[in-house]
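input
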Amino acid sequence: MQELLKNLQIKVNDKIYLKDPESSELGKRIVESSIILICEIGFEAFTFKKLGALIKSPEASVYRYFENKHKLLLYLTSWYWAWIEYQLVLKTFSITSAEEKLATTLEIITMAIKEDSNFSHIDEVKLNTIVINEFSKSFLTKEVDEDNKEGYFSIYKRLVSRVKDAILSVKPEYKYPVSLASTVVEGSLHQYFLKEHFPTITDCSAKVTPTEFYKHLVFNSLNIAYK
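output
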């Protein structure tokens, strides 16, 4: 299993990039350093010029991989959601109980992120911070419908669909499985943001995790007791 994981590659829609950053050491450095820089200064202040200075490579070299910084953000967030999906599939495929599978699904979707040694050039903890703070900027644009048609959000939507399927496996007659699933995936990010920046308007804290809240929310919505 460990050997299989070492050879695992996360696949992102090839329309997002001009050249696959996974295909070269420079591309991997661009991804690795962009995560560090965006996490440090924020997406608004981030530029390819600053990234080029950090990796000691001409700004033009970054443009060989990504058309603009919006496409780079789409790449990073798509990679993140694909990584979460990979965790989900890996940890639930052998679970036979529908309730346990749903509980594990919720735990993975809402978990506090730890670094994954299988991807040495990606700091998943910093990338999680970027997704919490910046993910909405990848789709709150005038081009969102066109981007959606191009499949830029397909991994994210597929992940929501997996959560929906886990909900329906527990209660097939539930009327709002997609809305509940997207609430969990998107809402988890928001609760982590509130916990960090607006703690007075969330119950999540050092003692109450988003995982606890969403397991309570989902199982109560389904009228099913689960501990």
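quick obs: The domain at 2-221 is CATH 1.10.357.10 (Tetracycline Repressor; domain 2).
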